[in-house]
Amino acid sequence: MIGITFALPSESSGLVRRLQAVQRHGKLLSGRIDSRDVTILHTGVGARDCNERLEILLHKTRPSLVISSGFAGAVAEQLRAGDLISQINRRPVKNLADYNREMAGSEKGKSVLLLVKRGQESVFLALKK
What we know:
Layout: E1 2-6, H1 9-18, E2 20-25, E3 28-33, E4 36-42, H2 47-61, E5 65-68, E6 84-88, E7 91-92, H3 96-104, E8 111-118, E9 121-128
Parallel strand pairs: 1-4, 1-5
Antiparallel strand pairs: 2-3, 3-4, 6-7, 6-8, 8-9
């Protein structure tokens, strides 16, 4: 399961619209995107609320990957809110270990090819590392 955090619901609205089989469990919103189980958490503003809510996510759902979103913009202009990276250089990315392995194997200054699920489409993006 992938846990995705946002400070505010307005930051996650695009991703929430993509959730299927949605279930609400207190502060957690769970569902599926493509074939992946996803839980979205709105941490709120401020360290205390954020820490308390993160504890709930981590202990109740035990995600294999946590993505913190909605606070600093994208790492590349081509990426958009709600994009899910499914491949790097034509190799599947299912978790953080896959992502780290593929990125570590890429040369700095060279481009990496991402396959990104964007809404109902899949698009290739070439990003400089």
